[in-house]
Write a structure and sequence with these properties.
Layout lengths: L10 E10 L7 E11 L4 E5 L6 H9 L6 E6 L8 H4 L3 E4 L11 H9 L8 H7 L15 H12 L6 E5 L7 H16 L3 E5 L3 H7 L2 E6 L2 E6 L1 H5 L4 E6 L6 H5 L8 E5 L2 E6 L2 H14 L5 E6 L3 H14 L19
Parallel strand pairs: 3-7, 3-8, 5-6, 6-7
Antiparallel strand pairs: 1-2, 1-4, 8-9, 10-12, 10-13, 11-12
Length: about 325
């Protein structure tokens, strides 16, 4: 097959480094040998706690700074050195917009549109983010959540092929956050590539086709949400009746391979095989007429996986980078 005309990935970074301060020990490496590929038309989430290097990485990918080492390509071009080519095709929503506070929402939109190639009508993007009814309000009178929605509207003015969203739903109430999620899904359906950072793990779980978790300037885990949580056990919890000792005496052979944690009468079962373990547990309870009060069974969540990775990374003295193909939770993040 002839692949000579295949389109490059939407975003591609190889061996990316970003160093602050003097060279050597006196400086600080915020990004250390990062490799990343974001496919066209997907939503990709970049996760990590404060200090992991997410913002520094985003600035390199957006072309707002040059890497100390390594290479970045956005739509096949260097976003820093070929800014004139890349900038009209991308949209950027920063953590802080910094717009003049005395301008109205509509005036801010028109000013931004004047600097945007092929800008769509301002009221159209305000409608997309639910701000058209606030078009005559000054920016300084907007709530924090409304300012975030204005940031998003301006990032969408140029109909971007690639959209960078840095903490897009911070400060939004649940209704506004749900609206942003709907909009991101619609953009993906239209073919827009979205790279987002977020502290809301539920947001990544809901939106991301794939994700990567950073720790100390490196990606330590990547893959789909299902791949990332695949190594984490499911959890079943319940409370035993006031018949002390009965649970332990019966030994529960159906739960072989699972780990049981007890806290008084409260029992937590961790298992890699949720359905089989739950079936065995319910069968045991029925045969022995044991009511399981407050029974709760759930698969592992991204939050549980994230916390486990963070804990493992903080405790790992080697702090070694993950292999490019890593998708299991053997490393960690911070």
């Amino acid at each position: 097959m002839d692949n000579s005309h295949r389109e490059p990935p939407a975003i591609e970074a190889t061996g990316l480094h970003r160093h602050y301060g003097p060279a050597g020990d006196a400086g600080f490496d915020a990004v250390r040998g990062l490799d990343l590929t974001v496919r066209r038309g997907e939503v990709f989430a970049l996760l990590g706690t404060n200090g992991a290097g997410k913002t520094s990485t985003m600035e390199l990918l957006e072309g707002l700074a040059a890497p100390t080492e390594g290479q970045v390509r956005v739509l096949g071009h260097d976003p820093y050195r070929e800014r004139a080519v890349v900038r009209p095709r991308i949209g950027i929503m920063l953590q802080e917009g910094g717009f003049p506070s005395e301008l109205t929402v509509a005036e801010t939109g028109r000013a931004w549109a004047g600097m945007t190639s092929g800008a769509r009508p301002v009221d159209e993007v305000l409608e997309l983010v639910g701000l058209v009814h606030r078009r005559t309000v000054r920016v300084k009178q907007l709530s924090g959540g409304e300012r975030r929605r204005l940031d998003l509207a301006l990032a969408l003015l140029g109909r971007p092929e690639v959209l960078f969203l840095d903490e897009p739903s911070t400060g939004l109430d649940p209704e506004a956050r749900a609206g942003v999620w709907r909009l991101v899904r619609e953009l993906r359906a239209q073919g827009t590539t979205v790279l987002l950072t977020t502290h809301y793990l539920e947001e990544a779980e809901e939106l991301a086709d794939r994700l990567a978790i950073m720790h100390a300037g490196r990606i330590v885990t990547r893959g789909t949400v299902a791949e990332v949580i695949a190594g984490r056990p499911s959890r079943i919890s319940f409370e035993l009746p006031e018949r002390e000792g009965r649970f332990e005496a019966l030994a529960l052979p159906q739960l072989a391979g699972a780990e049981l944690l007890t806290e008084g009468r409260r029992i937590t079962v961790q298992t890699p095989h949720l359905q089989a373990t739950l079936t065995g547990l319910l069968g045991w309870a029925a045969r022995h007429e044991v009511p399981l009060a407050g029974l709760d069974a759930r698969s592992a969540s991204l939050e549980e996986a994230f916390l486990a990775i963070a804990s493992g990374a903080a405790a790992d003295p080697t702090d070694s980078p993950a292999s490019p193909a890593e998708t299991v939770l053997t490393g960690a993040t911070r």
